Amino acid sequence: MNMHILVLLFSVCVASFAQILLKKSAAKTYDSPIREYLNFYVIGGYGMMFLSMFLTVFSYRGLDFSNIPVIESLGYVIVMLLSYLFFKEKITKRKLLGMAIILGGIFVYYR
């Protein structure tokens, strides 16, 4: 497997975890507006997004641009699974259908 594909997959995972951190921060209440934006979750989340951006740009060097949106769409699946693990969000039939369509599209594209 191409190293650039692995870097892009890692970048998608990093961005997914960053979204979870930012959602965790949004669920809390803070005593001041400054603490709302300057806390571990927000700084860590945006730092991870920044890292993900650099990893994604690096991976663009070795990939065809037609492959990138397909790999990036895995972020939807990862975020759904992480939301289930960290926030106990229910995975409904509608969500499963959406994920099946995304994964089916990836499967069809790579066959």
UniProtKB/TrEMBL annotation:
Give the matching Pfam families.
EamA
Q: Which residues form the EamA domain?
A: 24-110
Transmembrane feature ranges: 38-58, 70-87, 93-110
Q: Example GO biological process term? A: lipopolysaccharide biosynthetic process
Molecular function terms from GO: transmembrane transporter activity
Membrane topology field = Multi-pass membrane protein
UniProt keywords, alphabetically: Cell inner membrane, Cell membrane, Lipid A biosynthesis, Lipid biosynthesis, Lipid metabolism, Lipopolysaccharide biosynthesis, Membrane, Transmembrane, Transmembrane helix
Subcellular location per the Swiss-Prot or TrEMBL entry = Cell membrane
Q: Which Gene3D superfamilies does the record match to this protein?
A: 1.10.3730.20
Q: Please, which domain of life does this record's source organism belong to?
A: Bacteria
GO cellular component annotations of the record = plasma membrane
From which residue to which does any coiled coil extend? none
InterPro entries in the record, alphabetically?
EamA_dom, EmrE-like, Small_drug/metabolite_transptr
| Subcellular location, principal | membrane
> Of which family is this protein a member?
Belongs to the EamA transporter family.
Q: What is this protein called?
A: Multidrug ABC transporter
Q: Which organism is it from?
A: Parablautia muri
